[in-house]
Amino acid sequence: MYRLMLLDDEKVVIRGIQRVFDLESMGFDLVGTFNNPLEAIDALEELQPDLIITDIKMPQMNGLEFSVRAKEILGDVEIVIFSGYGDFQFAQTAVKIGISDYLLKPIKKADFTAMMQSMYARIQEKKEKSSYFQSLQNYMDTNRAEWKNRLFLRAAEEGILEDGDLTELKRILEFDPETAPFLLVRFDLLKLPSREDYTSEVGMIAQSFQEEMERYGICEEFDNDESMYFILIGPEPDSFREIRETVAGFCGQQREKGCRILYGISEIHCGIREMFQAATECQNQIFTIELRQSEAKDIQQAFEKTQNMPYVELDHLFRAIGVSDREGIRRSLDSLYNFEEDAQNKLTLDYVTSISYLIVIRMYLINKRYADSGFVIPGEILSARNIRRQYPSMEAQRAQMQKLAEELADVIASQQSGSASRSVQMATDYIAGHFHENITLQSVAEETSISKNYLSNLFKKEMGTTFLRYVTNLRLNRAKEYLLDTDMKLNDIAKAVGFHDYAYFSQIFKKNTGMTLSAYRKGGGQKEPADR
């Protein structure tokens, strides 16, 4: 049913329309009748009519003036004007200001019926287009979030950032990604308290921390299925110590709740082309804890020598590894280790060792995705000091890096040649039947006989998203169906789709759709008319 308003200073006309025509059978709910256009204007925002039928000649304000005001308040509302035989000049002006149609008085039943049918079809088409574009906007918003997540992950974990990505980031974000100062925080969740909803628990931790960080600047969260990253844009240099204390305090609070988080914090960098460098600093700190190494100082010293690292050449190397291009691997390493004239100089060896260390770090991050392959970065070279001790010359380091690079390339190629689509189908089929339960990446991997790391990598590659994001989006989409197709209570819908914390469910639903749960149900999945 669409909403109809009638306006005519002659009460008999309005009564006649109500008596002669079955407006409900025409698809309209009569929400207001007025004899005074000024009163009608005051009621427009509250009544939100889809169609207004008004006389053109009224004492307080003529129908054209009223129509202009109505368009200003309601935007694209449909307006039909009643006109006398001598009012054709008015009618011509009405067309210019966007009046939908006009009828001549006295009103003929057939003409009125045809007009109402035409208006119903016109409003219906408009609503369908509005619904389509709203759905398209929601799709774009969701996919923009996935796109940002992939972009930031590639920059942080692989050091790959295309010029086109930077252009698009600059368009949609509130800062210039090429020049804005930023720091990076990484969380590795080692333990979560035993609760009913793992997916929501992770999401609530991310949301809570993001809110904590927003007092220091713009905070964007991105994640894979093993780590959460938070890029803080625009932090003040003199707030760095306070930020570190805030991060430590947050993780301490989570520990008291039974959640163990390993975290790393980068220095402040300028421009997100340095994202990989910042991610490596976070990784260094986590390495120190994970590997229980005593040479933390050595790691930091090694990294301090990477301020002018050949990141473009490193990108070329890892692109070659990703496509198993052995000749490309060799050329990239030749370029990276091109110091023949001064190869024995101590400063040169220190610099070369920093390059080797950076390569090892990146290989280690990639290796984690293929932990079931049998290929493992040797633990003894996960420090700059040990690389220098075991491979004291530039030639020895280059040879070891080539060996590791080729082995890693073979692992990636073998994984890619497997039945990835079938594995993903098995996983998504299982998730479709169990998304409302307390499922995790590990539990799905076990049920489908796929390794956890391989499954995580497949989701990113084949589905363009992470496991946690996939499950969350599936839950939200099912919640939308319940909202539109049932009269279930909101709290019951939350539980039915797997959210055991209603407050978090309502927050993430609004973040995803731009609408509250009640507004989504009331508007049939479309934003309220006042938002037009």
Q: Could you tell me the number of beta strands?
A: 10
Query: Percent helix among the residues?
Result: 55-70%
**How large a portion of the residues is in β-strands, by DSSP E?**
5-15%
Compute the number of structural domains. Answer: 4
Shape: elongated
What's the rounded overall pLDDT mean?
83
- Named at the architecture level, the CATH assignment of the largest domain is 2-Layer Sandwich
Q: Tell me the strand order in the biggest sheet.
A: 2-1-3-4-5
Terminal-residue CA separation: 19 Å
Based on secondary structure, the structural category is alpha/beta
Poorly predicted runs are 291-307
In CATH terms, what is the fold-level topology of the largest domain? Alpha-Beta Plaits
Q: Main β-sheet, in a few words?
A: 5 strands, parallel
**Could you name the CATH class of the largest domain?**
Alpha Beta
Based on CA atoms alone, the radius of gyration comes out at: 32 Å
Count the helices. How many?
22
Short description:
This protein has 532 residues and is α/β, with parallel strands linked by helices. It has 22 helices and ten strands.
What does this structure look like?
The protein has four domains: 2-130, Rossmann fold (3-Layer(aba) Sandwich), CATH 3.40.50.2300; 161-290, 2-Layer Sandwich (Alpha-Beta Plaits), CATH 3.30.70; 294-417, no CATH class; 420-531, Homeodomain-like (Arc Repressor Mutant, subunit A, Orthogonal Bundle), CATH 1.10.10.60. It has helices at 11-20, 37-47, 63-74, 88-96, 109-158, 163-172, 198-213, 240-256, 275-290, 296-304, 311-322, 326-336, 346-367, 384-390, 394-416, 420-434, 441-448, 452-463, 467-485, 490-496, 502-513, 517-522, and strands spanning 2-7, 28-34, 51-55, 78-83, 101-104, 181-191, 218-223, 227-233, 260-265, 269-270. Helices cover 59% and strands 11% of the residues. A five-stranded parallel β-sheet has the order 2-1-3-4-5, sandwiched between helices. It starts with a strand and ends in a 10-residue tail after the last helix. The protein is built from 22 helices and ten strands. Residues 291-307 have low confidence and may be disordered.
